[in-house]
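Review form for a predicted model. The reviewer records the input and the model, then writes brief findings.
Reviewer: anonymous (R2)
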Amino acid sequence: MNDKISLDSDLCIGCQACVAICPRVCFTMTDQQKARVISDEACHSCGHCISVCPEGAISHRYYSSQEYQEITEKLSTDAIPGGQLYYFLKSLRSTRSFSSKPVEKELLERLVDITRYAPSAKLVQNVELVVVRDPKVIIQLKKLCAETIKNTLRKLNNPFIRVLLRLTGKKEALQKGLKAKPRLLRMQEELEKGEDSLFHDAKTIVVFHGKKEGLYVKENCLYAASYLRVLAHGFNLGTCLIGYLENFAKYNPRILSLLTIPKTNRLCETVIIGYPKYSFRTFVARNPAQVKWLANAEK
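Model under review:
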């Protein structure tokens, strides 16, 4: 019995679009040139069949038809020329200086919503979010990070621990820690002076997390964070990925507790959001793309 997908054969015109588009081979064509669901056990609910069907003959048990809003001319990719989009993406920067103006909740809700449409390996959709806007929580989070930095530096300065790490096959981790030591020292000093070199006084922090054993959870969180950042840029907001919090959370479980992240989950990505204090006048220089073209010699 088909539980997920329903197909109205009276509406089907036999275009075969669903057969061609389905990545899980859930459809076939009958002798009457009508599409038929052969098995939806493999269906991972990507929704592509519903989206391409010109007659609206396909529906999904777990998703409302309202989720499948028609892409009108106003909403199509033609509304954003590729050349314009190129420069839009080229202008996306990491923001580390914010104004005091808070980001409106309605706007944040829209940013959070777009993360649902980011790529998800095998469409497991295993990304969870925590949006931190409470100033008291942000202050406490800074204190926990400062505490973690202090403990990390104490271990890096301990000769016995350094030897132990080498003997237990953690030489690479030790080298990374020693390399980061100057930055950690500077960050500790700044935090102790009340300067925020970690979250840069952003009024909103978005944390992406998922099950520790989740399939591709780290990658999926990064995809979701990237979607949020791009849309935020479209609303003239500044964002920045903060990788330190992921590492701090590994060594201080109180960080996860403060963020209400369950012990079964891992913190994967962190994005700070706010209105930029300064505007970039120009694009910035980057190294040329390292590319090998495998093509014929005609052009």
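Findings: Strands lie at 5-7, 27-29, 35-37, 58-60, 128-132, 204-211, 238-241, 265-274.
Further findings: The chain has three domains: 5-67, 80-147+195-280, 148-192.
Recommendation: see findings above.
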